[in-house]
Amino acid sequence: MVIPFVYESRSTLILLTQIFIFAIFAMSYDILLGYTGIVSFGHAMFFGIGAYTTGILLQRQEPTMGIFILSIIVGIIISVIVSYIVGLMTLRLKSHFYAMLTLAFASLFQVASEKWRSLTSGNDGFTFRIPEILIDRSTFYLICLILMVILYFMLQRFTQSPMGSVLIAIRENEQRAESLGYKVLHYKIIASIIAGATACLAGSLYAASLRFVNTSVFTMDTTLDALLMTIIGGVGTLLGPVIGAGLIEFAHHWLSGLAEKYPLFERWIIFFGIIYILAVMFFPKGIVGSIQGWKAGKKLKKAVKVKHEKKIAG
């Protein structure tokens, strides 16, 4: 299959596929952080549920497309149940108390995946086969791209709905939203369920792209990846996490590639950290957020200038 602008490069296909997958994961985190004001350190829990559900079903059943789709559905159902239960137990807590408790739940899933060796093979993880149609990297690339675009517009529609407006009100002033009669916990749980289900889908795609899964999908590093992608791209924008995922995955690929050629870049993670620092310094609201701020500032200056000219003319 010929894909425009990709030139059938295997490494480029893999890189772009990873960008699409992590863009979905980062958008799910943006629903929590950007639109509801919830900071979670355990969002990898849902990513891992999707990865393990897909991996286990494809390993133990004939790897057909039907089983793959079933694994995604089962993973989303489990994520919805878990996010609802965890939400009821934790979302009454504020700020860092909630964040630390979500980290504890994610660690619980990680420990379970390490100890339940008969099902998960422990820290070593396991490999599995995927449906024949997905073996072609070009096909899998297109599936991930289409899913990312569909989810972007679905989540955008959700955030622009009346419910999305309530979530933004909760982010801005939770006490005032509650005083207006909104059931804050109810709305937070809905946001958590949507974010969890979306992250679960990303986890399923991630496992299928590697054809391997281990306990690393539950670690805090996975959550931090989504957090950094969201912050660098622009919190509360949806487009920001997509751009953030692209920049971080590309920087990771580029720097690790340089490390193989030049000894200077052996400690490439340091340069990676410098990129983060520069991004935060020059784009404090994220790339998309800063651009939107600059545009709004220009419009405001233009409006003030027009008003001033009319005042002089009058």
From TrEMBL:
One of its GO terms (molecular function) is branched-chain amino acid transmembrane transporter activity. One of its GO terms (cellular component) is plasma membrane. It is a multi-pass membrane protein. It is found in: Cell membrane. The chain crosses the membrane at residues 12-32, 38-58, 65-89, 95-113, 134-155, 189-214, 226-248, 268-291. Pfam families: BPD_transp_2 (PF02653). InterPro entries: ABC_transp_permease, LivM-like. Signal peptide: none annotated. CDD domains: TM_PBP1_LivM_like. Keywords: Cell membrane, Membrane, Transmembrane, Transmembrane helix. The keyword Transmembrane applies. Its main location: membrane. This is Branched-chain amino acid ABC transporter permease.
